[in-house]
Amino acid sequence: MTRPTITGLGAACPLGVGARTVWQRLLASEPALCERPPTAAGLDTRPATAFAEPFPAERYADRRTVRKASDLARLAAAASVGCVADAALPEDPELRDRMSVVLGTCFGGSGYYLDFHERVRRRGPRAANAVLFTEGVFNAAPGHASALLGFRGPGLAVVGGEEAGLSALLTATDRLLLGAAPGVLAGGADCFCDRVQASLLSEGRIGARLGGPFAPEVGPWAEGGAALFLEPRAAAEARGAHLYAEILGGVRGRAANDTDPEGLVRCAERALELAGRAPADVDLVVGGACGGPPAQREREALAQLGLRGWVCWPQALLGEGFAFGSALQALVAALALAEDVVPPTYAPDGQPPRAGELRGVSAPHERAHLRTALVLSSSRPGGCVALVLGRA
Amino acid sequence: MEPRLVVTGMGLTTSLAAGVEANWTALRAGRTGLRPLAELDGVCGDLGVGGPAPPLPGLADALDRRDRAHAYLEGACREALSSAGLEGGFPAPERAAVVLGSSLAAQASARDFWESTLAHGPRGADYRALRSYDTELRLAALCATFGARGESLLVSNACAAGASALALAGDLLRLRRADLVLVAGYDALDLHTQAGFGAIKALAPKAVLPFASERAGMQLGDGFAAFVLEREAEARAAGRRPVARLCGYGESSDAHHLTQPHPEGAGAALAMRRALDLAGLDPGAIDAINAHATATQSNDPAEVSALRAVFGKRLAEIPLMATKPAVGHTLGGAGAVEAVVSILALRDQLLPPTATAGDLDPACAPLDLVRALRPARLRYVLSNSFGFGGCNASLVLGAPE
Questions:
Q1: What is the residue-wise DSSP string for A190-225?
Q2: Which end of chain A has fewer surrounding CB within 10 Å, N or C?
Q3: H/E element, A238
Q4: Across the interface, do A118 and B149 touch by the CB < 8 Å criterion?
Q5: Do A4-238 and A247-391 have matching folds?
Q6: pLDDT tens digits, residue range B329-354?
């Protein structure tokens, strides 16, 4: 039986580039919230966890790719290249012929797409810009990542809400279980866009300050990319790869609305059932909460599940990362299991948050023997994913 | 043992018609739904040629413009469920999944936001109008409308998305993560997409002429195709009659260029081989091919190279269908729309004519491009879809047994 295992991690976000760097910043619980410089649209951009300066993508991808690519593709490329380097994947073209890229995103290359729209609306269809059009498609990021890595399995973009990064991981897991690929790079990326931010602010879907996981308002927008490399455990062991964690099971579900915890409870229970684990087996929960009604929904769901043990909410330090955020949750769970570390949850009052019997910790972190982690992410409209990771 | 997957219901709306049978009648007659566009999204002028779908009876008047794509999608899904005998709902909602494939998803719906921006400036714009950008809202609404409470996801890999949605649905069924999947591929015609393809000089000024010397590109069209896909044993046990089998699917990435196909079609050939492998078939078993056939300068020869790599000299003897001259390139809908056409060909043992065809490009010849309605013995049809990002997806569809 195939046992999907995580053997590589990559990340690019304002906390740093590289999974280890991001992990250390998370453990130190140092926020990276910044003021964005005024944008061309002249919008009052309130604080976000976004790169204050353009992301130096040329360090991680070739110049030709970087020249045209959107910020989303650049972030995804950096996370992907770092992830495959971390996995120490051999340069075997035959192997890479069957490897896939599956990246989740919520807003895609929205900046490019909106710039394209604006130009067409202001100057007419004949003024349409080819680069903005082609690089603005949802699957530009996996397309670039596939080309950079020489992966010729399918390159897919899973588009959804906040849970899209975890949804991509689940699709990748399925591909491994079916023997359709010997390895899959999966994760999520979303990048800052001033006009989308204005829209999200107007709907209360993001806020402007970090108030802890259960603040009344959602945290600010956090841009970034996070990637995990998955391969069958037997193959990983045969090539001597470092094993971070094993994916034991997972499932997608749907809550009725942004306050009803039932859908999340069912989703988590089903994921545990598929993983062959009971709620009592869960040592660590990595949640997606970073304020607002969906965070309360998640807290209620976790309480109803009767889980005990540890919990952390990495996005409390960053803000709402959308697809990047849920992929980051999986990355954090993998590192926590590999290092027997319970990462801290950022809270302005310094008090470690709780959910039912689950205990969060303050910086720097706690050491604990961790065998099973539950990763849970949900979107405001109700889409949710639960993934169960086990110690490798 | 691998479960056999079957299609038990289909829905289709294109520029030719609303409804599977109405589309099939038009396709068999060699009609095209493509015509000069006098108006699109409120803009008039020289907009080229395209394939807008006919207004939805009874629903069009109530349409919020932002919901146009969603309304057509919902119509195709309703038809698919109805033809599977599931008008009353899913037998086990918790085990009913929804998988969508779309290139643009809801992106095209951002136009209200831009109108508001133009009218009031960036500071006065109605940023709530951008909520239509949120595809998850659309997916949630569709699940709620049809009462599907199982897994749901939307895949966007450009013009291969419709075929990839079927592949992902197949994965869910093979892994028993769902018992029944409502699958759809869709994209709506809109000004911005029209302008985008114009900018990359991919739009034909006149007819779409696949594999022809004088081919000059594609034309775009509305396309919404939906399926009920399930495991054969459970479908038959529940009394639902299979209309076709999804025997295999294969996907690949060119890993070459974001918009240009690999010149030798290496990635496309990989996708076809993978689909045949999963189906457990040799290339010799394929009786007809529904080609991607965009009629662009670079795509058609690349597809022919890939087909030659897989089928060798026998390619010249395999009938080749090209659906895009009839309905336009429906982008994320194409893989699903063309799967419906392939299934109808299998059902009626008939190959529909290519609505507009020219003299074959010597670089593409010899090919048996179907030019007139033709009876044929069909057991297996291969359907190809390729797209931006170097995405390739191929389906092997079989007649039910």
A1: E---HHHHHHHHHTTSS-SS---TT-SS---BB-EE
A2: N
A3: helix A233-238
A4: no
A5: yes
A6: 999 999 999 999 999 999 999 999 99
Determine the average pLDDT of the residues in A71-97: 94
Give the Cα separation of A217 and A263 in Å (integer): 22
pLDDT of the residue at A35: 73
Residue in A156, A174, A203 nearest the CB of B164? A156
* Nearest alpha carbon to residue B152 among B174, B132, B137: B137
Cβ-based contacts of A153 with chain B (< 8 Å): 251-253
Contacts of A121 in chain B (CB under 8 A): 111, 114-115, 117-118
User: Between residues 113 and 132 of chain B, which touch chain A (CB distance below 8 Å)?
Assistant: 113-115, 117-118, 122-123, 125, 127-131
Q: Do B110 and A117 touch (CB under 8 A)?
A: yes
Q: Is A167 on the interface with B (CB under 8 A)?
A: yes
- CB neighbour class for A329 (10 Å; exposed up to 12, middle 13-18, buried from 19): buried
The single-letter code of the amino acid at B277 is D
A111 chain-B contacts, CB cut-off 8 A: none
- Which overall architecture, per CATH, does domain B5-398 show? 3-Layer(aba) Sandwich (3.40)
Greater pLDDT, B40 or B180 = B180
Query: Which residue does chain A place closest to B389, by CA atoms?
Result: A143
Dist CA A302 CA A297 (whole Å): 9
User: In this predicted model, what pLDDT tens digit does every residue of B351-401 receive, in sequence order?
Assistant: 999 999 999 999 999 999 999 999 999 999 999 999 988 899 999 999 998
Tokens of A282: 């869960």
Whole-angstrom distance, CA of residue B194 vs CA of residue B355: 21
Q: Is B247 on the interface with A (CB under 8 A)?
A: no
Interface subset of A 101-120, CB within 8 angstroms of B: 101, 106-108, 110, 113-114, 116-118, 120
CATH ID of A247-391, from 3.40.47.10, 1.10.760.10, 2.30.29.30, 3.40.630.10? 3.40.47.10
Q: Which amino acid is at B308?
A: R
Query: Does A151 lie at the interface with B, CB-CB under 8 angstroms?
Result: yes
Burial of B230 (0-12, 13-18, 19+ CB in 10 A): buried
Residue B324 to residues A182, A314, B218, B339: CA-CA distances in angstroms?
35, 48, 8, 12
The residue behind tokens 């892994």 is: B175
> Are residues B199 and A133, on separate chains, in Cβ contact within 8 Å?
yes
Locus of tokens 């492998």: B277
ipTM greater than cut 0.90: yes
Contact call for A139 and B391, based on CB within 8 A: yes
Instruction: Output the pTM of the full model.
Output: 0.96
B376 shares contact with chain A (CB less than 8 Å)? no
> Could you report the per-residue pLDDT of A126-179, keeping only the tens digit for each?
899 999 999 999 999 999 999 999 999 999 999 999 999 999 999 999 999 999
Does B103 contact A at CB distance below 8 Å?
yes
Domain borders along chain B are 5-398
Cβ-proximal residues to B15 (8 Å cutoff; 6+ apart), any chain: B33, B34, B50, B51, B52, B53, B54, B221, B222, B327, B328
CATH for A4-238 is: 3.40.47.10
Flag whether residue A390 sits within 8 Å of chain B, measured between CB atoms: no
Closest approach of A135 to chain B, Cα-based (Å): 8
Unique residue bearing structure tokens 């803009």: B43
For chain A, which residues make up each domain, given as ranges?
Answer: 4-238, 247-391
Residue closest to B73 by CA, chosen among B151, B13, B146: B13
CB proximity A221 to B under 8 Å: no
| DSSP conformation class of B352 | P
Interface of A with B in 360-389 (CB under 8 A): 379, 381-383
- Range A72-84 average pLDDT: 95
